[in-house]
Design a protein that fits this description.
Layout: H1 2-22, H2 45-48, H3 63-66, E1 77-85, E2 91-101, E3 105-115, E4 119-120, E5 133-134, E6 137-148, E7 153-165, E8 170-184, E9 190-199, E10 211-215, E11 222-226, E12 237-248, E13 258-269, E14 275-284, E15 288-297, E16 310-324, E17 329-340, E18 346-354
Length: 355
């Protein structure tokens, strides 16, 4: 235990110390230079309902995206499916599960696939198309492991495989996430969390689509010329968050009928502006939860300075239905919404089973 504390506490200290220095560290000059930006999309409805403000208190499978340490709170088995109606008629399907292994460990698997629909093929000679369609295939696969190091400290790591492809060009890569959550207070109602996301080697597109037939002027010989695409970096970031739970009535740890949670998160992005997110959630026992949040980044209120289509507000709710009280199994539905301008916003619909 002492060795674990020696490893974890310096990481917390480093995050806390670096917070004031990195508050305005978002590198606007590098905006748009990263690739694989689908890694920044949260496909899960519960945490998206308050903008991801719950970095420090997220639980279960969806913690694999926000802070993988939260998957360590899985009691037995959790299954989840999500359907996201993203911007510009893009649809996202996500599926995964977490499974407790041993006394304190949890394994997780998460898959996110993006559906862009059929896009007309155009060329310089045929700019109007009419020669067929193509459909990009974006797939993220995450395999995670999290562990409770004590009653207060939880940590985890997530390995992601990234794939972006069309019929004749593709890019593949890997990335790593790591996170820590610390829980304290009389009723475990004070939460702190730090997560590091999307750290990995550069990616590059390869394939026959980058080659063409050309003629050497001096010899007249026809040959295939392969163009090299430029490498691109992954959109790495750091999340630092905290949350506090208020229970009503609060005279006994067993009487947690009503809960109000206030949460805040700071995101330091390597390739875009930093973000501040604030959220609040009301929970009636474990049956009903209603939440809302607001995400702010510099210039988002000015049309001339905005670099995102998201306008800030987020909202959502969860309904959890007990299936077997003896085993503690439940079935839940999560709904989330993020406001955008333009487009018609983003809608999340998620189904979840705890077995």
């Amino acid at each position: 235990m002492k060795k674990t504390m020696k490893l974890i506490l310096p990481m917390f200290a480093a995050g806390i110390i670096s917070f004031p220095c990195s508050t305005f560290a978002g590198n606007e000059d590098r905006a748009g230079q990263a690739g694989a930006t689908e890694l920044l999309i949260n496909p899960w409805g519960r945490s998206s309902g308050w903008g991801g403000a719950n970095t420090s208190s997220v639980r279960g499978l969806e913690a694999q995206f926000l802070n993988v340490a939260g998957t360590a709170f899985t009691k037995k088995t959790e299954l989840q499916f999500s359907r996201t109606l993203w911007i510009a008629d893009i649809k996202i399907n996500s599926f995964g599960f977490t499974q407790r292994v041993g006394a304190t460990g949890v394994l997780g698997l998460g898959i996110m696939s993006m559906d862009f629909g059929d896009i007309p093929i155009t060329t310089v000679d045929l700019p109007e198309g009419g020669i067929g369609t193509y459909s990009p295939q974006f797939l993220n696969l995450g395999i995670s492991y999290a562990k409770a190091f004590s009653d207060n400290i939880y940590g985890g790591i997530n390995l992601k495989v990234i794939s972006e492809a069309i019929s004749d060009v593709q890019a593949k890569g890997i990335a790593l996430d790591a996170g820590i959550q610390y829980v304290t207070g009389k009723y475990d109602n004070i939460h702190f969390g730090i997560s590091l996301k999307n750290v990995g080697p550069r990616m590059r597109f390869r394939g026959d689509g980058l080659s063409f037939r050309g003629t050497v002027p001096s010899t007249g010989v026809t040959m295939t010329v392969e163009q090299r695409s430029a490498e691109f970096e992954l959109p790495s970031l750091v999340n630092i968050g905290g949350a506090y739970d208020f229970y009503l009535p609060n005279d006994s740890s067993a009487q947690k009928t009503h809960r109000i949670t206030f949460a805040a998160n700071f995101t330091s992005n390597s390739f875009s502006k930093d973000q501040f997110t604030f959220g609040v959630e009301y929970g009636f026992r474990s049956f009903l939860m209603v939440r809302a949040g607001y995400t702010y980044e510099k210039g988002m209120s000015n049309d001339d300075e905005r670099t995102t289509c998201f306008t800030g507000p987020n909202a959502g709710f969860t309904v959890e239905i007990p299936m077997n009280k003896a085993k503690g199994s439940t079935f839940g539905m999560d709904f989330g919404y993020r406001a955008t301008q333009p487009f018609n916003g983003v809608l999340y619909i998620c189904a979840r089973m705890n077995l």
